[in-house]
Amino acid sequence: MLPNSRFPLLVHRAGISGGGVDAVKARFRQNGWLNNWTYPGIYTYPHFHSTTHECLGCAVGWMEVALFGRGGTKVRIEAGDVIVMPAGVSHQMTGSSADIVMVGGYPDGRDWDNMQEEQITEEERRAAAKRIMMLPIPARDPVTGLPMQPWIDAPSSVDADLNDYRDALDAR
């Protein structure tokens, strides 16, 4: 039930040296990743977003995050690290320090939804996958401010042979 993405998930280790809420939020805003939030971690249940990509910056402490659904990858991030997550990638906090503070942001301040694998129907999954495939590549990386070259270089929908998949999302 997880769409995932044709774009790679990026982890910037020490991308914002030392972290800090103000520094992380300022960098995100400077690079066009807005609609920011500050929270003690992220949700502890697996979820993904179908309306936007997301960046997660560790401002204080450390967090372990499970990515790509059950049996996926676990990554530990620490203050100053940033995850740039394509829409459709499942994520959840599975452990953290007591002082964890995360800052989030979305390209151009897009609104986010909260899709939970255990609660979506097949019809909702198909609609989410279609929305994800139509999202633009963000103009700039939230950490470096440079073009999102790893995403630009990813195979297009045509080259990745996703046209039949996309067309089948409408079939019932």
List keywords for this structure.
172 residues; alpha+beta; three-stranded antiparallel beta sheet
How are the SSEs ordered, and which strands pair?
Elements: E1 10-12, H1 21-30, E2 33-39, E3 54-60, E4 62-67, E5 73-78, E6 82-85, E7 91-96, E8 101-107, H2 122-134, H3 149-152, H4 163-168
Antiparallel strand pairs: 1-6, 2-8, 3-6, 3-8, 4-5, 4-7
Walk me through the structure.
There is one protein chain. The protein has four helices and eight strands. The radius of gyration is 16 Å and the shape is globular. Helix content is 19%, strand content 27%. It has 172 residues and is an alpha+beta fold. The model has no long low-confidence stretch (mean pLDDT 93). Strand 4 and strand 5 (73-78) form a beta hairpin. The protein has helices at 21-30, 122-134, 149-152, 163-168, and strands at 10-12, 33-39, 54-60, 62-67, 73-78, 82-85, 91-96, 101-107. The strands form two sheets. A five-stranded antiparallel sheet has the order 1-6-3-8-2, covered by helices on one side.
